[in-house]
## 1
Amino acid sequence: MRHYGRLVTIVVTVLRFGLDEVALSSFRQRWVRALVRIATIGRRLDAPRGERLRRGLERLGPIFVKFGQMMSTRRDVIPRDVADELASLQDNVPPFPAAVSRALVEKAFGRRIDEVFESFDAEPVASASIAQVHFAVLRGGREVAVKVLRPRMLDIIDQDLALLHLLARWVERLSADARRLKLREVVAEFDGHLHDELDLVREAANASQLRTNMDGLNLVLVPEMVWALCTPGVLVMERMKGVPISQIERIGAAGVDIKKLARDGVTIFFNQVFRDGFFHGDMHPGNIQVSLEPRTFGRYIALDFGIVGTLSESDKEYLAYNLLAFFRRDYRRVVELHVEAGWVPPDVRVDALEAAIRTVCEPMFDRPLREISLGQVLLRLFQTSRRFNVEVQPQLVLLQKTLLNVEGLGRELDPELDLWTTAKPFLERWMNDQVGLRGLLRRMEREAPAYSKMLPQLPRLLHRALQRQGEPGESAALLALLAEQRRTNRLLQAVLWALAGFVGGVLLTRFFFTWAG
């Protein structure tokens, strides 16, 4: 009952801005359309549907704005004009009063604010839907940034998310597209992201992991967390001094090599994706700055770590092999990858899917490689998959959105940026590490502790099995055990012979060159 008032507000907003036209555009049920037409008799809508959707979400509040931003990445399902309008959503909101911010900080630390800080700027430097940021100086003179969660955010978010879950269930019952979109899974993923953002300790942990991963790359700066002052509602971090990436003229006038800056951005992203499988998932220009300090001149500064993406080895394999197959025009391999992953329905004709992918992708090769968008490659694959009811995996959606952001930023800095030339070494290195000799040796090294523990136990296990051979009901299990043991022995023998041959070859080669010398 407590949700009914909010639900009425949502329904009124939907009808006022004509959002029903967008929500019901793919519905086949005539009774649903007829019911809406009756409820909206006399309504006049002049603005485009994408603009009306954006305005309606803004009217419903920051949670719906964030959901619209997330949905803007699902260009494989929603119309292009709607996706473009949703991508322009901004969640800048008026800051809450300084007195409230100070009270929240004091409550989080259990101390008066002047016991923790020498100074605390009342005016926030940034204000968003979830939190706002103040500059401050710690006791001892260290400059920091203090991120403060908005009051009562958890209650507001939980109420709206409960309604989103309910609406997702209703829409999936009525729309086949919504079921293929996995709308409930999208809402669940959105739920997880929002709750992650509400825990500032988790954000601090994300920042710390990225800082560790990027250490030594010398291309990006990540602020250090002041862990003694990090709580779920207040986060204190090193203050970063830089120029927003959007101020390109100012950055160029300071002497920064803009073309190198564009390449560095792509290098950072692909290191995070293919090397670490852990990437910044909210890389819009508001979260990126450039350092002009002499010691770190020209490096990126990353901010706001509430959303990060993670990729498993299978996700990275899917991405790497698909991109390489695409640029080799091996569309059959693209289809085979989808089949191997189990994403293709059993009734789909593989040759028809291959022809569809070729039709969509082949025209792209009439353009120079530097003009081909890797993000658009993934998008086209997703769009083609839609026709054949191929399931698009939710874990790749954030990656696609981030890749589009990185590409847009890189080409804004340098219109001639060739992303394929930058990405190809990462893909080839990853494949060599996975399927080459280096990958084999590394996996054997990783499994060595397990082998060293298992091998001494094999004689005892075999002896025990032989003793139990005569017991009833044990023969089938024993035969299976012995068969598995024989397979294991053959595998170990093959590996040992391969290693022996490799080492022997190296020694003979060194001996030959020493003797010849």
## 2
Amino acid sequence: MEQSLILQAMGDPAFYPDAPSAVTVRETHISTLFLTDHFVYKVKKPVDFGFLDFTTLSARHFFCQQEVRLNRRLSPGVYLGVLVIYESERGIHLEAKGDVVEYAVKMRRIPEARMMDRLLARGEIDADIIRKIALKLVGFHSRARTDPEISLYGTVARVAKNTEENFRQTEAFIGTTLTPEQFERITAYTRGFLERRRSLFRRRVAEERIRDCHGDIRMEHICIVEPIVIFDCIEFNRRFRYTDVAADLAFLAMDLDFHHRADLSRALVETYIEYSQDWELLKVIRFYKCYRAYVRGKVESFQSAGNALTEEARKKHLSQARKYFALADTYADAQPYLLITSGLTGTGKSRLAEALASELDLALFQSDPIRKEISRVAPEDHRFEAFGKGIYSQETSRKTYQTLLSEAEEALRQGRPVILDATYLKQAQRDAAQRLADRHRAPFFVIEVTCPEEEVKKRLSDRIREVGTISDGRWEIYLSQKEIREPITGISPAQHFIIDTSGKEDYLPRLARKILLDVET
């Protein structure tokens, strides 16, 4: 039976048992919705887009059932069930007699005025609402199903399958909604990230961060009522729903960025990680925001190519597609950042720099090996010379710091974030590093490393006896550095971290989180 006849019947208020006063019909590319006074009825179109196939009645029945089951997780009381539509001699109806000709999802109607996108447009979304949404998502993700099969969808191979599919499907739009330069940058960024961060993706899988998620968390799918309703999840393709919780969160974070509310996007991510304790999510959130923005650009591009569009609607889809691709490009073209350590010898700068470089995938350049290379001294050879003499002379120090900046500049030019491990005791040295960061539009941070003197003295005494250590730091050097150290000035508190390495507290996660919150959200 032609579905158009069924849709025609459903447009008549007499079709419904509660006799609504009117019926409003709305279309999406995969469904037709009928809005009555109190309910919404959704019929899936018999379409095949590759990533979904609703061409058979049995498939539409199955996915109606899936839609109800899956959406009840975040929309309790909204998805009421699946209705059977019959045809008999008296026509098309909901009475249980005749031939089954279609299925419809029945939902309780929720107030459109309370939809998140509308509230945002009116300036009515604040930090408290964002906090409630974040907490709802933390609870949802913690309960969402995971198993070895679902976890496979978080591997580099499966994620790359999705991203490469997006790139293939958008090649036809290069020059229309997507510039060649944007396409090149986004593909390079995506492929490079997946290649460099393989161990991170493996860790996300091992920590069971890959779950049966929502898959399409955008503002137009969130209703700010009590309790908050998040609806319209992806039921038609588990490949889009089985994903990292970070990818689920990234859709809404991206949507807020798209609507010029980066402050709310950051608050969403920060609250989520605070309560989920998934601070490593910060390492992948930009990647997944780029992916989500690209998907929206693709969808809008597809919609702009529809045959039945008015010219006004076509222009709107084209404009939206270009904006989404431009946003994806900003994520892909994010500037690297520059960190420097500052502190006296023996305070733990090198250990901190090495740990942070490993944690954040930073290019690491250290003054000790550079100083010895300049002085033509083997790394393992110790030179216990007085401060200001030999390898500690002013000229050697000048060359050392200049080499650090040169190495950092090359890495920044290649898009790599950098950490420079040196004492940086002088304001002029720190200023030179900041000027380098400014030239590359790179965020700049100073990590001031401290430690009580008794602990430093013990460390330096122990270090002398260590085999293979590069540093020649000694107590006399520490005291001399203390005399010439200049206070750190000219930098905001948000860029200046003070870390005491003497305690048992693991400062690394806290420090990495602060940096990532600033550069990745």
